[in-house]
Design goal:
This is DUF5673 domain-containing protein. The chain has 196 residues and is of the alpha+beta class. It has one domain. It contains 5 helices and 10 strands.
């Protein structure tokens, strides 16, 4: 969960800092200085848009490459918090629409703000579940070797996982719903993968 929050916060902070940075430079008259025949006020949003586009494309391509590297899912499962993330996605889209109404002339800001729902959306559309080499959640694979334990109660299968992200090591829980008719088969499969 912290990994998702950090990723979203990074994009949000870059967007907000670019907005206020542009505002500050505008007040000080720096935006009128010309480079390559264009003013800094014109170049700055273009550079920020290119950087954000590279980040989004890299994220999308890395999801596809990891899917090819770790293989397809053996069992497609449903997350327990999927509805909350879908609601979060629609809130982001609503914010984008609201900003579009308020700022119809500032296309570059809308573009930057639109990157967040785009990234959130394709992560939510990824299939999730169990594969031979890893567990997929939110488009991110977690190797079976990172699973420290698992818990199976009624229809809820929860993995306790230790993951490294940037400079942090964190313990996270990955919960899935399991249909009753698949419970024995999936539990046997998990035991063979985790080795606990």
């Amino acid at each position: 969960m912290k990994i998702k929050i950090i990723s979203i916060l990074i994009i949000l902070v870059v967007s907000v800092l670019s907005f206020f940075g542009t505002f500050y430079l505008g007040i000080n008259g720096v935006l009128g200085v010309k480079i390559f025949g264009l003013t800094i006020g014109t170049l700055l949003p273009i550079v920020i848009e290119i950087i954000l586009s590279i980040i989004i494309v890299y994220d999308f391509i890395s999801i596809r490459l990891k899917r090819m590297r770790y293989g397809e899912l053996k069992y497609v499962l449903k997350r327990t918090n999927k509805k909350v993330q879908v609601i979060g996605f629609f809130i982001l889209v609503a914010i984008l629409i609201f900003e579009a109404i308020l700022r119809t002339v500032d296309i570059s800001f809308l573009y930057m703000l639109g990157m967040l729902p785009l990234m959130f959306g394709y992560h939510n559309m990824e299939k999730e579940g169990l594969g031979d080499k890893c567990i997929y959640q939110w488009g991110i694979p977690t190797k079976w070797s990172n699973v420290s334990s698992y818990n199976f109660k009624e229809e809820l299968l929860t993995f306790n996982v230790t993951k490294k992200y940037l400079w942090m090591t964190q313990d996270i829980k990955i919960p899935f719903k399991v249909e009753k008719e698949q419970q024995t088969e999936i539990l046997d499969y998990v035991k063979s993968r985790v080795g606990i």
